[in-house]
Write a structure and sequence with these properties.
heterodimer; A: alpha+beta; four-stranded mixed β-sheet; elongated; B: Ubiquitin-like (UB roll); de novo design (two linked rop proteins); 3 domains; six-stranded mixed β-sheet; globular
Chain lengths: 157, 403
């Protein structure tokens, strides 16, 4: 990481800490914002957050490792989360899964080389009556069929 | 690229899916002393809609009686139970019920702050909910001296989860709000004594709070008339699986599974999973049982399986879910769920002994008593009930029992 990038990130985190308050209870909100913008929370970012909240960096790391939406390793710009729970499974999740892996050439849990997509499973996301369903970033897509799912991929940046 | 959300609201009822004007319930409550609000709530018999069924009035009373300097009301919108989506529909279509319920709770227990813990998967609702809160502030339904009631200040903020099922457990939810890993705490002390930041906190399900404004408006006695003696009012069910009309239904408590299957248009039904992955699997011979706290209690998740479904596959899906979502802090849940999943895979490959499977059922029963929170206490339910009720199918007809 270059020095000016580090400075920019520090500044950004300082602003976030100011926005949510210098308190442990702000941690999750700060992490969510950093994750949203940078697609992961780097070691340096974790250290900065820990410093500003006066907690140990390993505390920050342990929180990141707990929540499935937070990552310490770089993820793709678009996170694709396919629901794997029973109702979506019965509605044909496996076909969608096969189509997505074929189309992107990666398996679930991996990121494409151009860092455009990360493919993940997620548990029930409350679309059970209109499955199979997937989330792309914070948008939800329902009643998928393999072709539709792949076409949706093409539309994201 | 547009969201094509369909709320699939299939059956409306007298309480939750009915007409209500923003602020009416608050107006009614603010005209009463706090004791009367509690009395009205008590006479309604409203119980927690998340599934556990704790009387709401008792919870509120415990916090109202506390003399702590700060108190909190938290709305649990972390619906993660497989097969549940009613809170999403409530928040999208009836935010006035949920937020008015929180304001009434704030008034009654003496809290100045309300927090909505919205699951990360529902981030797309955030903007419209924030906008709605702004409208409420414009109407003086939030903020200082609400509806000119001297000294009643209350505001609501929304916090997002980050994809952890266990955070729906109230103490884990509080841990998460405090910026920690969402690991459940020992109870007692209960959140009503030591909750968010150590202050008395009421944690209520979205649907529980949404019932409150109607009770204020029409009275506890009116609410009692709906449902059964022990389960008053109506309940939202999220129905998915093998049926013609999946969606959200408002039903009075006491409805039987047979009735339910009729109006959702389910045919050739083999089994119904009530209460999601942590609930129980009801086989055909028990379809005359009632949905009520005194018979089959449920948070509202109903998943229907027809004759073509492989119940072992269903069970494996549930166990994979629990292995993934167990927070890992207590051994019965962390190791137990892994062992149960292994057992399911053994059955699938035909490499098992009945004595080992029976030992796993005993392990499940130990987990039900030894786990720290509801997740581990309820995760063996599916394992035990599916293997008991469908043993012919699993062990003999599908050939899993034969190598």
């Amino acid at each position: 990481m270059l020095v000016y990038e580090k400075n920019a990130l520090s500044e950004e985190i300082e602003l976030l800490v100011e926005k949510y308050g210098v308190d442990r209870s702000s941690l999750l909100q700060i992490l969510q914002d950093v994750q949203r913008k940078h697609n992961h929370i780097s070691d340096f970012a974790q250290q900065e957050i820990a410093r500003l909240l006066s907690i140990h960096p390993v505390e920050v790391n342990s929180v990141i490792s707990f929540y499935s939406f937070l990552h310490s390793q770089p993820q793709g710009r678009n996170s694709i989360k396919l629901c794997q729970t029973i109702s979506c499974d019965m509605a044909g999740k496996q076909k969608i899964e096969d189509a997505l892996t074929r189309e992107l050439g990666i398996s679930f849990g991996e990121t494409t080389k151009d860092k455009k997509y990360t493919l993940e499973h997620t548990n029930c996301m409350g679309m059970c009556d209109q499955g199979p369903a997937m989330l792309i970033n914070d948008k939800v897509f329902t009643r998928l069929d393999p072709e539709k799912a792949v076409n949706i991929l093409k539309e994201v940046e | 690229m547009e969201n094509n959300l369909d709320n699939n609201k299939k059956r409306t009822g007298p309480v939750l899916f009915s007409k209500y004007t923003r602020g009416e319930g608050i107006k009614k409550a603010l005209a009463m002393p706090r004791e009367d609000v509690l009395f009205e709530l008590k006479s309604s018999g409203l119980k927690g809609r998340g599934g556990a069924g704790f009387p709401t009035s008792t919870k509120w009373m415990l916090v109202a009686a506390s003399t702590a300097s700060k108190k909190f009301i938290v709305c649990n919108a972390d619906e993660g139970e497989p097969g549940t989506f009613k809170d999403r529909v409530l928040l999208m279509e009836y935010p006035e019920l949920v937020f008015d319920g929180m304001v009434i709770a704030g008034y009654t227990i003496g809290a100045k702050t309300g927090i909505v813990y919205l699951r990360g998967e529902y981030e797309y609702l955030l903007l419209q909910l924030e906008e709605y809160l702004m409208k409420m502030r414009d109407d003086n339904l939030l903020g200082k001296n609400i509806l000119s009631k001297e000294g009643f200040d209350f505001d609501i903020s929304i916090r997002l989860g980050s994809g952890a099922y266990v955070c729906g457990e109230e103490t884990a939810l509080i841990e998460s709000l405090e910026g920690h890993r969402g690991e459940p705490r020992n109870r007692p002390p209960y959140p009503v004594n030591t909750g968010y930041l150590g202050f008395p906190t009421v944690v209520n399900n979205v649907e529980t709070l949404a019932s409150v404004p109607h009770i204020m408006q029409k009275g506890g006695d009116w609410f009692r008339l709906i449902g059964t003696d022990k389960s008053t009012g109506s309940k939202l069910l999220s129905i998915s699986g093998d049926c013609e009309k999946p969606g959200v239904y408002e039903i009075p408590w006491g409805t039987t599974i047979t009735e339910l299957l009729q109006f959702v248009g389910a045919q050739n039904t083999k089994a119904v999973q009530v209460g999601g992955a942590s609930g129980i699997c009801i086989p055909k011979r028990n379809f005359d049982r009632h949905l009520a706290y005194e018979d089959i209690a449920t948070g509202g998740s109903i998943i229907i399986f027809n004759e073509s479904r492989d119940m072992l596959h269903v069970l494996q899906n549930f166990m994979e879910f629990f292995v993934e979502e167990s927070c890992g802090q207590c051994t019965p849940c962390r190791i137990g769920n892994t062992k149960l999943l292994e057992g399911v895979k053994m059955i699938r490959s035909g490499e098992f002994t009945f004595s080992y499977i029976n030992a796993l059922k005993d392990l499940g029963k130990s987990m039900q008593v030894a786990s720290k929170c509801g997740l581990g206490q309820s995760s063996p339910n599916a394992f035990i009930s599916i293997l008991e009720n469908f043993k012919d199918e699993i062990f003999f007809h599908n050939g899993y029992g034969r190598k």
